[in-house]
Amino acid sequence: MALQGSKIIATERHLHLAARAQVGLVRVRLWTGASPVEGVVLFNGSLQLDDGVVCVGDALGVTTFRQGFGGTGARRILVSADDPGNASRIDVVLDPGTREVALTSCRDRPIPLVRVADSVKLDSMDELGLILSAHDVPINRLAAALKLIFLTAENDDGVRSSAMTTFRIRMIGEWVRWVSPAMTEVEASSIVSFISKKLPDVSPVDVDSFSVGIAFEVMARAEA
After folding, report:
1. Cβ distance 171 to 214 under 8 Å?
2. For labelling, which of 34, 76, 102, 197 has a CA lying 20 to 30 Å from the CA of 90?
3. CB 51 within 8 Å of CB 94
């Protein structure tokens, strides 16, 4: 499948996309049902997945990644890239949606939209995962995650689910470690504990300002 100057070419079962040469990393993310609305769409069609597996690799065969998604046969695929013809960030979406949905965010602190399939209904855990799926606009994403936790800390009976809240705060701790790669597990645990102590018994009156303030404090601790 020679590109011959093309940005992307396709056959019934394969896509070949031009990425930048071996001067830096190329990041490929796989999504299904929900994905960020980012980059330039280079392909929006169907591929035949005989075994329900998507395989991503480079032309030299140095790196290969395989992920099973089930559902053999023709599957709709959407591929977008940050820099067509010289891509360094590529998103591959199985069963992409057409609905563009705004995730929970704080006032004046937007985060990118996500594209959601009609068959997908995002719950609060899905939404938190999507908020923490990237590290662009870190303050905005962190504040959005905190706001979501504050707003969903109570179950339908008005009782706080401490176990679920703790798990979600730990997700933030792991996310912060990717922002600061030198951070240790002990330091991440300290941030988790800090956030837990900041969580009020009831949702704050101005949850947006409250969440943004904590986000700045957390990032300051992460960068210390």
Report:
1. no
2. 102
3. no
